[in-house]
Amino acid sequence: DDDDGKIDEDTALDTGTGCLPGWFGTHCEKMCRCYDSACLPNGNCKENVSCVFDFFGLQCQYKDLIHSANVSQENVKYRHLTPCLYNFTAKTPLNITFPWPTRISWIQIEAVSKDNLQGLKLRFSQTRNQSCYTGHCRHRREFYLNTNTLRIMCSAAQYVCRISIAFNAPEEERELCSIYISA
Question: Which residue, 65, 114, 129, 169, has fewest beta-carbon neighbours within 10 Å?
Fold first, then answer.
């Protein structure tokens, strides 16, 4: 380093950002998590390239816990690069059980339409031999990222073992596309 205030520029190949290949960010602190390291200098994936397995969201920086969980409907785990190309009928309750007590940041659910997300309830419960938070989603905050993607945040100060997703009208079929759980 020649002490000019830039990071690792002496060992970096020319990425246009001063970061080593596969890294980006103000201080080169974020790893590219696009398939084949096909990131643009700002960290977004190149056109028609998706995030590597287990990552999602803006610049693929969110770790998805759904793949390591036991899910009552396995087709929850099947996704496609094109949002909502595949969908499934959610059976209520849809249970997501983690192999170990886990802290979560938020849950993101993508549906065929906004109507499929109405009346959604979340409940947390324990599993055998694991002590975890039991109860409803406290201080629930939700917002739509687009017309059919809902993000739900809860104040979960404790570890979570199981999440149950149910609907106020269980007899109505719900067409969902994907569920992401951010660690």
Answer: 129
